[in-house]
């Protein structure tokens, strides 16, 4: 086994399974998708650590969220094999690649166009033909491939992402970290007959996605 293969196994056994991720499909995806392929060469040694990994190279800081949170959000999303999924703020595409192992079709957006291109290349190099990576603001999603069964945020939001919720199909759900109040928590929002129901899942912290920050309060 290579060093990365061993690290991947330790990540799944030590960080993901121990945080109540029991879905075999997710565990298998996390065991087979090489996280180091989505990390700049200089940081590949950090690929399997329990941290939000900064993968930006200049520009806005962009992250791969912690492996255990990645697994828990995927499990909460209950992605079906026939589902059409949107991954928002995909950075270099790791969450998009995992999702592609679970869903029928994945659209992944990233506000940093250089990282969107890296995401596209990384997914292509793994032979993932059912994922489309695009440069787009986190608030915009991708209406052209909507409606979605599932939308996953690769990070946190401090505001209600109205533009994304409007792209859910009836019965669809958005999963991510809500930092609208403290402490931040993982949340699932379900669309039913045009109404949106919010449910808190568990305490969780993640970097806020660009464009989904709370507006700065005006101070005299």
TrEMBL record:
GO biological process: methylation
Organism superkingdom: Bacteria
Listed InterPro entries: PCMT, SAM-dependent_MTases_sf
Keywords (A to Z) from UniProt: Methyltransferase, Transferase
Similarity field: Belongs to the methyltransferase superfamily. L-isoaspartyl/D-aspartyl protein methyltransferase family.
PANTHER family: PROTEIN-L-ISOASPARTATE O-METHYLTRANSFERASE
Organism in which the protein naturally occurs: Bradyrhizobium betae
Protein name per Swiss-Prot or TrEMBL: Protein-L-isoaspartate O-methyltransferase
Keyword Mitochondrion belongs to the record: no
GO molecular function: protein-L-isoaspartate (D-aspartate) O-methyltransferase activity
